[in-house]
Amino acid sequence: MLVKRQDNVVTGVKEFPNLNAVQLAQAVFDEYHATPKGQRPVDICVDANGPGYGVYVMLMNMGLPVKKVMAQNSPTRDPQLYSRMRDQLWWAGRKWFEEGGVSIPNHPDLIAELCLPTYEYETTGKIKVEDKKSIRKRGRRSPDFADAFCLTFASTKSSATAYAAWSKPIEYDVRHYE
Fold first, then answer.
1. CA 38 – CA 78 distance, rounded (Å)
2. Are 66 and 46 in contact (CB under 8 A)?
3. Is there a contact between 113 and 143 (Cβ–Cβ < 8 Å)?
């Protein structure tokens, strides 16, 4: 699944069924290069747990601005609020909708999946979003479109940083850090 988001607008949702990791990486590469330069993402966020790791590595080797997201690992922001990165990303998506002024395409699967997971507060007070296994136990399919949407919140970059050349190292004065 591929979800494209620019600020407050989801601009596209794509499914690439029945592709292996190499084919999927090539499809994302082609999609990136078919996108006009001013609209290309600053980050392509890939859930690199399990099979996604191969896609992440291939995209990185292709020179794309890919970000490795480990959804099952610890959160990168507000660790006192979330147990896992997945919880953090889903909650960021929830806040995005709450703030209003947002737009998503009329994509029935994405819309339905965004409403699937429940959440609870753990005894530690941390937010826990229902996991995929529990969703499937309820007879629902895995929320892959919604997970792809939530991955868009893993980027910490904004369009203001898009001018930076990601293909070469950032130069800085080492003496400043001594």
1. 32
2. yes
3. yes
C-alpha triplet 80, 74, 160: angle, nearest 5°? 90
Strands 66-69 and 127-129: unpaired
Task: Please give the model's pTM, rounded to 2 decimal places.
Answer: 0.84
What is each CA distance from 91 to 9, 64, 102, 136, 153, in whole angstroms? 17, 27, 16, 20, 9
Ordered domains of the chain (ranges, CATH): 2-156 (3.30.420.240)
Q: Mind listing the pLDDT tens digit of every residue in the chain (178 residues)?
A: 999 999 999 999 999 999 999 999 999 999 999 999 989 999 999 999 888 999 999 999 999 999 999 999 999 999 999 999 999 999 999 999 999 999 999 999 999 999 999 999 999 999 999 999 999 999 999 899 999 999 999 987 644 333 333 444 445 454 444 4
The set of long-range contacts for 68-74, using a CB threshold of 8 Å and a minimum separation of 24, is 69/45, 69/151, 69/154, 71/47, 71/147, 71/151
Question: And the tokens for 4?
Answer: 């494209």
